Amino acid sequence: MGHNRTRVSDSVPDVDERDRRNFLKVLGVTGGVGAASELSLSDIRGAVSAESTAEFATMGEAIRADLAGGLDAGQLSAAVSGIESAVAELPALRAAGFPDEPGTAYQELTEPVWAAYDHLAEVGLFASAERNLPEFTPEHVRSTAAQLVRAEPAITALAELGFTEEERTAVVVDAVTENHRLAQWVSTASLPADPEGFDPSNVAPLHQRALGGGLLWIDELDQHLWQREAILTEELLDRGIWDVKRILGGAHLFATAAHDLAGPEELTDSELSAALAGGSAIAIRGQEALAEDLFRVSDADRAPMGGETA
Question: What is the pLDDT at residue 16?
């Protein structure tokens, strides 16, 4: 899908030397990898340990057993294609800049994902993922990243979606180096009860919150960009578009794994688990960054009062 390979902006953060060292240390990779500017997932794939593969395979096998016969392959295939089309639209949305009036362009990006989201909630995939996959502890993020790096079909899916080698590396490095942020996203069972009546059982499963939250942030952009143009700079919009791409990339990984569950089951059980967990992690980090870049703008980053947004 060559038409999807257009870069949406120049805002993809560089992997600096400290992040490179931390990333490789967490993955247990030593030697044979160049400077941060040369770091790529393909280069380190063979050096990543397979120690967690059996554990991830057991998780994937349990999820397959839970969902046997319950998924609609056609609906999920349409969702995957829809996400690919949405990512292909991002360069045009960036070129259009801030809207002159409220529209629906960003909500249209998420329509195919919402359709898959509703289906996956109905058949219980989110509940099964929360039940069978561990929470995002630093150790789980490490093992998920290791399995994701080794899961060549999952990384290839991101490439086909339009993520360059640099972008694929950036999203995985970010998840690993920001694992303390991911650790704040806990399972429903781990949420404390509120003495004033908050019931954790009313909260959606972790992976459902990961995808649904990201989609809600994207949907809000139609109104938000129109209302807040005066304080948002072109640089912030660049970063926001990259964040949207990250959310859609995470959703694509998750939906691709769900489609594999429905058939033809080309992913191994360990690759399935890594794609579900990794897709959720990427979507979480994308929405956190989007909130910071476009919704919680500091005085230092906002456009000058009465000045240009460029």
Answer: 85
Least Cα distance to 259 among 270, 272, 274 occurs for 272
Token pair for residue 121?
């909630």
Q: Is 150 helix (H, G, I), strand (E, B) or coil?
A: helix
Place of tokens 């005085």: 299
pLDDT at 101: 92
Q: What is the largest CA-CA distance in the chain?
A: 59
Tokens encoding 278: 């990794």
Identify whether the C-beta of residue 84 lies closer than 8 Å to the C-beta of residue 175.
no
Helical (H) or strand (E) element with 116: helix 105-123
Phi-psi region of 280 (alpha: psi -120 to 50; beta: other; left: phi over 0): alpha
Segments in the chain below pLDDT 70: 1-10, 31-37, 195, 197-198, 306-310
**Neighbouring residues of 217: CB distance < 8 A, sequence distance ≥ 6:** 247, 287, 290, 291, 295
pLDDT the model gives residue 70: 92
Q: How far is CA 113 from CA 16, 109, 214, 232, 239, in A?
A: 33, 8, 10, 27, 22
Closest listed residue to residue 134, CA positions, set 124, 122, 144: 144
